[in-house]
Amino acid sequence: MRDRRVGAGVAALVFVAILIGGAFLGLAIESAGDFSGAAAAFDSYLFRIVRFTLWQAVLSTCLSVVPALFVARALARHPGFFGRNFILQLFAVPLALPAIVAALGVLALYGRAGYFAPFLTRVTGEDWPGIYGLSGILVAHVFFNLHSACACSSRRCRPFRRINGGWPANSAWACALPSASSNGRR
Known about the structure:
By secondary structure, the protein is mostly helical. The chain has nine helices and no strands. The protein is flat. The relative contact order is 0.10.
């Protein structure tokens, strides 16, 4: 006898496929009648928005993942570090805070009149624009995503122990890329 969970999963998959297929079918029928309306949707404004979105996504990912790899590797290599537990507890702050409290905290720190605004104005040589724009999106994404990327990378780094008195040469990448571990050892 088949497991009822498999049947429920297949039913849900069929429902989602019908829903998505229906949307694409409606789109195809609409565009078949008059293609000029569909072509007009792809104007320069839409391309600017898509380009900005993709650029922001790349920057957010890099600013969250790259530092997380270094922090995770450092935490894995130095399990006796006295501030290790504090850092790990600090990573839980974005998960525990309500989003509005986190947003107001980011605004109080990085806003136009925020705590770091004079420093950022001196560093950039221009008036700090605040967090309304790309800089604010990046600050918020790093605040909410860095701890998750670090936690995932830290779990990946945990199995690497000292081998023959030292770490494998490629252990920095082995924390992030499963295929980079030497000889398949973990």
